[in-house]
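Before a computer can learn anything about folding, someone has to put a protein's shape into writing. The three-dimensional part falls to structure tokens, numbers that each stand for a local backbone shape. The protein below has been through that process, and both of its lines are reproduced in full.
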Amino acid sequence: MRKVMDCRDYPSESHCSLTIAGEEEEVMQAAAQHAVAVHGHQDTSEFRTTLRGMLKDEVPQHA
């Protein structure tokens, strides 16, 4: 199942609205890079554990 990480779920001073969706490891890599580059986080194993806990299952959109 695809995973989603949505910055809107975690308010920040930048009011970021980025949403990342894909396979779990793809989302983790992109989210970690984004968090470091945009939000100033340090990419540590503890931070990655926190990020992984923030992943949600993608809700399929059916027409």
